[in-house]
Specification:
- The complex is a heterodimer of chains A (259) and B (254).
- Chain A is of the alpha/beta class and 259 residues long.
- Chain A is built from 9 helices and 10 strands.
- Chain A has one domain: P-loop containing nucleotide triphosphate hydrolases (Rossmann fold, 3-Layer(aba) Sandwich), CATH 3.40.50.300.
- A 6-stranded mixed β-sheet of chain A has the order 6-7-8-3-9-10, sandwiched between helices.
- In chain A, helix 3 crosses helix 4 and helix 5 (138-150) packs parallel to helix 6 (168-183).
- Chain A starts with 6 loop residues before the first strand and ends in an 11-residue tail after the last helix.
- Chain B is mostly helical.
- Chain B has one domain (5-253).
- Chain B has 12 helices and no strands.
- Chain B has helices at residues 5-22, 25-45, 57-73, 75-87, 89-94, 102-128, 137-164, 168-173, 175-180, 196-203, 207-218, 224-253.
- The model of chain B has no long low-confidence stretch (mean pLDDT 88).
- The chains are: A alpha/beta (259), B mainly alpha (254).
- Chain A binds chain B through residues 50, 53-55, 57, 75, 78-79, 81-83, 85-94, 98, 102-103, 105-108, 148, and chain B through 2, 4, 7-8, 11-12, 15, 18-19, 22-23, 87-89, 91-98, 253-254.
Chain lengths: 259, 254
């Protein structure tokens, strides 16, 4: 028997003013795996994430996170999850360390100061920890945002477009952080518009299109949906990303020198 | 509801007080307009105003100026609450296992502290301008109590504006009409000389009994009917705005 899914979504629908956004979404995510939810802008990814994080009520259907129903036991769901929204939700006026301490306090944990220092070290933010977040680069903000999500070790993490708007270097840093999470047994649901991100990170990929999940499988399964690959010989041109990273990657400034 | 309301409120109040401490100009800005009005009315118009009461015009004017201070100070609460929603940190808090109303209480208590600081600034200026009172500790506690109730009532109104606003300007703009209420009350001149309809409005709106009560408290006069009326207005406004704010809040979360 397969283990109980960490996220279980059955027939979720949601409309805004008669305009259906989700038309019956079914999706399971197994514990300790990374599922990438792919979809174009406006496909309803954020709506689904907001329903799972108890910020929005579905019109019909049920969803359970870590075994708790999102409408029946929202408080238990909030204990089990952590949400990182589309825009880095950090407090700009506070320092990085103060942001982490704040979240640790709100999760009612012992010794918030020590938790903050450990996370600053883990996300290479120790030197920037005492500076106001308003002085951080986009990548540093996003790393802080993800660090804030890890406080209290929630078993399920919802990442809504974690790398949108980041430069390639910062994106790689976020990917490393997500991989590390999954190795620690955390279940990750990640939404993205970048196909490459899904390929790089996900154990399974689901595609949300016009309010429904149209496919759900491993990368290999998804590739098998298309006719078998035929062999062609093509001159390998480096992608612009490879060029960019080759030129700046090695001496890309460590976190504390960026601003 | 859960049992973390108090600890979460303390944590979030600490956060938003840090915001205030890191931009102390908000406290000064709140006090600037009332101080300018105080100077203008005492030194320019004051000699032409006959209040029929003992003490200089600054003694007559101070309560109204204090209420104007609060009315302009609470606009920052709407503004901060609006920015929290814009930045996404509001949603982060709402998706965490906290007592959900703590996010509002944190802003409300911060407003109370920030406004009391601005009020102290204004009172210091008034003292420098010759405001004097022989009132005892009890009367001053009474003044503080009335101002706290009034600040809480207006702050919860500001919370409604902050939750409902669609732009930062809209969030702060709700306070302007509040700034004019003291002009149509006994705050600047006695109501007795006003024409009929204006006088009727002035005598039946909350600012007049609140102003008269503050004045009676530090002039060591009996409070009488006005005291009860002021308390009823403040508590009534507070209850109504708190109730409405919570309704708007719950609707927003649903």
């Amino acid at each position: 028997m397969p283990p109980t899914p960490a996220i279980q979504i059955d027939g979720i629908t949601k409309s805004y003013g008669g305009n259906p956004v989700l038309r019956g979404v079914d999706l399971d995510v197994a514990p300790g795996t990374i599922l990438a939810l792919l979809g174009s802008n406006g496909a309803g990814k954020t709506t689904l994430v907001r329903i799972l994080s108890t910020l929005l009520r579905a019109d019909t259907g049920t969803a359970a996170v870590h075994g708790f129903d999102v409408t029946g036991e929202p408080a238990r769901v909030r204990e089990a999850i952590s949400l990182t929204g589309q825009f880095a939700a950090v407090d700009e006026i506070l320092t990085g360390r103060e942001n982490l301490v704040l979240v640790a306090r709100l999760r009612h944990l012992e010794d918030p100061g020590q938790i903050a220092d450990e996370l600053l070290a883990r996300f290479s933010l120790t030197d920037a920890g005492r500076r106001r977040v308003a002085t951080y680069s986009g990548g540093m903000r996003r790393r802080l945002d993800i660090a804030m999500s890890l406080i209290g070790d929630p078993p399920v993490i919802l990442l809504d477009e974690p790398t949108t708007g980041l430069d390639p270097q910062a994106r790689l840093e976020v990917w490393d952080a997500v991989r590390e999470l999954a190795q620690g047994g955390t279940t990750v649901l990640l939404t993205t518009q970048y196909l490459e991100e899904a390929e790089q990170l996900a154990d399974r990929i689901a595609i949300l299109h016009r309010g429904r999940i149209v496919v759900n499988g491993t990368l290999a399964e998804l590739k098998a949906l298309l006719p078998p690959a035929k062999i062609e010989y093509v001159e390998k041109q480096p992608s612009l990303e490879e060029v960019f990273l080759a030129l700046v990657g090695d001496d890309a400034a460590p976190a504390h020198e960026q601003a | 509801m859960n049992n973390h309301l108090v600890t979460d409120t303390v944590t979030l109040t600490g956060r938003s007080l840090r915001h205030v401490l890191r931009s102390p100009d908000t406290i000064v800005t709140t006090a600037v307009t009332p101080v300018v009005m105080l100077l203008l009315f005492v030194y320019v118009f004051g000699s032409a105003i006959e209040t029929g009461q003992d003490g200089g015009y600054v003694n007559y004017l101070l309560p109204g100026i204090l209420l104007i201070t609060v009315a302009s100070g609470v606009a920052y609460t709407s503004y901060r609450l609006f920015l929290d929603q814009q930045s996404g940190i509001f949603e982060r808090f709402q998706s965490m296992p906290i007592a959900r109303s703590a996010t509002l209480w944190g802003h409300v208590l911060t407003s109370l502290v920030a406004n009391l600081l601005s009020l102290v600034l204004v009172v210091l200026v008034a003292l420098a301008m010759g405001f004097r009172s022989g009132a005892g500790v009890l009367a001053w506690l009474g003044v503080a109590g009335v101002l706290v109730l009034f600040t809480l009532a207006l702050t919860w109104l500001a919370v409604i504006a902050g939750l409902a606003a669609r732009s930062a300007d809209g969030a702060g703009g709700f306070a302007y009409p509040l700034l004019f209420l003291p002009f149509l009350s006994s705050a600047f001149v006695p109501t007795a000389g006003m024409p009929g309809p204006v006088r009727a409005f002035a005598e039946h709106q909350p600012v007049t009994p609140v102003v008269d009560t503050l004045r009676n408290l530090y002039a060591e006069q009996p409070l009488g009917h006005d005291g009860w009326l002021a308390a009823a207005w403040c508590i009534g406004l507070l209850t109504a705005s708190y109730g409405l704010a919570m309704t708007v809040y719950r609707r927003k979360l649903a």
